């Protein structure tokens, strides 16, 4: 059946094994993303998602999953388990009251460490339950602009932030910052999926990630934090479409990330992004933004290569690009288009029409065309079209049609300044503008000379006026005759 | 008559002796009764006896005297005018430097006379100015008067000999402690003898200078020397001001400047870096209509541009910019075509027509016209119909720059530039001294001079003792203030 949401083809991975790499709280969100955009897997993904959600405490997420099921037409999954819901809500509420009561007690006793832990437990509970119960009971309830789940997470974030007041060691701060990063991520992804503005949350992710770089903990602890900081910042940049910074951040992730244990109870590679994911994100953003030379030195011949070994096909894509085999590179990348579009971060924005994969692919394509063209003085549109088959076209499109699409693409590339070429619309060729360096240098020098000369004359005029006291004096001031009234006064 | 011819002596004089003698001679002349200049001797008019080239000063006296006794007889006017013309062609500029007031009067009379006789050839006047000061580099009130006359006569091109000379200085009061050079000496810059005391120019005011440049810019716009017009307009816009005062003349110049930018670059010129921010603000607030116009021009939004052009007709007409605006309208079309060459090497006319929003036939004739007037560097290959004709841009040159940059004019321009730089240096040296004096005479501590003041303080250690004392005094004054 046709999906009401934009969908992609079947991915190459097996759902079970793919998702076994990840853990909540982002796991159900991953599954929901796949369910929403991949019709062949949607039933299986939703089933898995509901299982996972039922193990957790988030009631609002359960509602969202069942709503999605009815939207996608999986009637069997759309039925709400009211029994579970009632039990869960009740349990959540009781747990919350208990935690709040305990915290109050700690506060009365003024035991700093206990208050910190109580506050932290409360924050964790709120983030695990999506904060719905809290939203009702909390005094500082925020404006009801977001969905209940979002609102709850905001409460969770602010509650967690309050832990800072009771932290006494750098290690505490590190743990707190890490948890804040996780909650911010959860917020950001939820906002993306529900179509809300995610960028403030990504800013939080970025801020907390940057803070992780210098929390003042001991060297051996910092070694564990640095990879998380770089990867978190990379994700934030990627999801705010700042691909250049994203590439830089991902490339700086040390490979120790792949093997390191959980830090302060947060297992980053399971909860947030695996080493394989980092390899893909890093490779795609680098391909889209870095120059050929940088790709060689900063990606292939750098410590990042260790990541690439985990995903040999993206490493191959980069080498193909470096060897100027652009069409092979594009073909290889597009084979994994579905996989990447179903990724939680890369596929974000799919509901709005353009995911980050689409944008990155477009950039890589643009760069390839520019690089391909740079070695020719003239290329026909038809040969361009065969090297870079336009994407998103029915295979039955006639040759003229393909060239027409190619022409539009080339025109937009030229007018955006990405491609320095001219289109010969009559012969159907793209021509490199022939440059006469000598003439150009002459023209440039002439222009410059003129500029300088004019500048000097203006300055001279100014100095002369000052020498002779010929400044304009405002009306009112003695001798103020500047302006219209002087017109027509003869001598 | 003997007195009249008593100068110059037969043997050549050094500058100082010349100065002494001519000053004494002038006092003698002043004491003579006016009749001495008009009385005929031996049946001859003094004008016939005196030589305009060696007895320039008495000759001028006589001419002035003669102007007073002219009746209504046109022949007499003509006769005197021819004498004046002869005088202008042969007079001794060094002598005339001493009789500036007289010279000014005579020049003005000539201007009136030409007007009276209905002669529109004003070259006499311009060559007179150029003989006195071949560089015409010191601005005098006569410059402005001359340009006004030319425009009044509807012969703006006649003003070019004067306008083409760049102004390097304004007449100024000779600084007291700077040793004044003698007018009789061979001098590099004409402002050494054209100063406030010489009488060769009347008292100047900032608005007169701005008017000169504004009128000059109009002449250059008329003669299509747009880069020169730009310079003139910028000179007006950047005229220094106290307390961010802005002149109406500047507003007018600014409006023209915006339009010229559209004509030459297809977008407004960048603001000169040294421009005062609050002046920019004031100017812009006075030129809203023009700003809107340039904005739609820059976006190549012809529909909006033409609509604004129609809506603002009254404004353009009132400011005398109607023709410039209309021309910008035509240029807009050219820019829209030449924008295409940033994207295309060649394209069928039908596609050009699509981009311009015109019919193919109209487009073809427009393109034809543009290529003919060489405002577009391209070739047209006719097809079976207008739509099938092909427009092929000439790829060799980019944009509207000429194919061959003339190396010779290039060199000349650079040489001019070097001269200008040298001159600027020279002027700056004068400035320091001058500011030193103005600061002492009247304390006008404007921020405009801050840079120069700083220079001064750096110079102080090496300056003579007298200057040191001055700056110390000032330091005290600063504290007091």
TrEMBL record, chain A:
Residues 249-437 form the PCI domain. It comes from Cryoendolithus antarcticus. It is found in: Cytoplasm; Nucleus. Belongs to the CSN1 family. Pfam families: PCI, RPN7. Keywords: Cytoplasm, Nucleus, Signalosome. Gene3D superfamilies: 1.25.40.570. InterPro entries: PCI_dom, Rpn7/CSN1, Rpn7_N, WH_DNA-bd_sf. GO terms for cellular component: COP9 signalosome; cytoplasm. This is PCI domain-containing protein.
TrEMBL record, chain B:
It holds the Pfam family COP9_hel_rpt. InterPro entries: COP9_N, CSN3. The keyword Cytoplasm applies. Keywords: Coiled coil, Cytoplasm. This is COP9 signalosome complex subunit 3 N-terminal helical repeats domain-containing protein. Residues 407-434 form a coiled coil. It comes from Cryoendolithus antarcticus. Residues 45-273 form the COP9 signalosome complex subunit 3 N-terminal helical repeats domain. The keyword Coiled coil applies. GO terms for cellular component: COP9 signalosome. GO terms for biological process: ubiquitin-dependent protein catabolic process.
